[in-house]
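quick one: cobalt (II) ion bound model?
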Amino acid sequence: MNEPLTLLGNRCPETFLAEYWQKQPLLIRDALPGFTSPISPEELAGLCCEAEVESRLVLEQADSAPWTVEYGPISENRFAELPKTHWTLLVQECNRYIPELAELREQFNFIPDWRVDDVMASYAPRQGSVGPHTDQYDVFLIQAHGTRRWQISTDPVPDDNFLPDIDLCIMREFTATTEWILHPGDMLYLPPGVAHHGVALEDNITLSVGFRAPSHAELLNSFAEHVASQLTPAQRFADPALRLQQHPGEISRDALTQVRGILQKVLADDTSIEQWFGEFITEAKNEHVPEEIETLDEHRFLQTFATKNRLHRNEQTRFAFIANNTALFINGQHYPLSAELAFAAPLLCDQHQWSHAQLQNELTQPGFAKLLTTLYNHAYVYFT
Ligand code: SIN
Ligand code: CO
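yep, here:
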């Protein structure tokens, strides 16, 4: 992993992390040499017609509403009505539907998996843009087809520099500090908050590898919900040592100390924090429950694996683990592993496919085949 990566302009991942990640933008020419788009404009348009696919159409107009956004599913007829220029179609989570994009996402494994969100694809004809804006997340913008001019500004963006009344965070004023023209295979990394404006110079596809960064509010809400779900109604404020107060209207220091103690006790429980976080962060955004799959017992699973030879991780799943207490998390589910099975956590989380030969030794370890069978029966892994 400390080998230089072409993707990072022949930088070692450590150098990229130390000098650029969350710090400053980086343009990498030819990050993906000879890259051709694994998705066509027609395929993108097709995806937007599907109800379960998250998509948006952003139009720039000259009249009183300069920017409009329409949310998918988008009908085929709508495409026929669109002007020749000045619009962008954006499709979220394309890595779920296009295997090459799932593989592209894997190339970013110098960032922890749980931090990676999805690969979004956008198509724009000439002059198409979503306007100058900032994002709250890091992003790698990969030019997949055609050329696009990217302008960025590393100046701070005041909160009042956004257009009101539209569902997009478009900046009122934007002055570029740097600009580049990206060709297929070029990639631009932007940390959160850096203002950017990409305009298609011709028919153009951009892929965005986006990241997740839960807000503190989300973390606190989710953790509080997790803890609260495990408490009983009998666990409540009690004050058997209550002493007479001078002012009945006062909230005493003793009462406040007791309340703080209730909260501190919860936060002192590392196991509870770890279990909640693993579940929270691996929750799938729009989990697509697969059609009925034929469940297998362990014996049949092993037979099928030997015949089919290759087991794949379902592209719609999120795997992560926490070392030492060896907890495996998949799509918000917690699978505690015994010390003997601890080897399974990195083996299952670091790879996206496994050949039968590769797992031959592990399959003889007690509990491993049973674990794989359970994952298969939940459709977290599948055979090809
Ligand atoms: C785009 O692909 O058009 C927009 C991506 C972005 O600015 O984050
Ligand atoms: Co953006």
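The longest strand covers residues 116-124.
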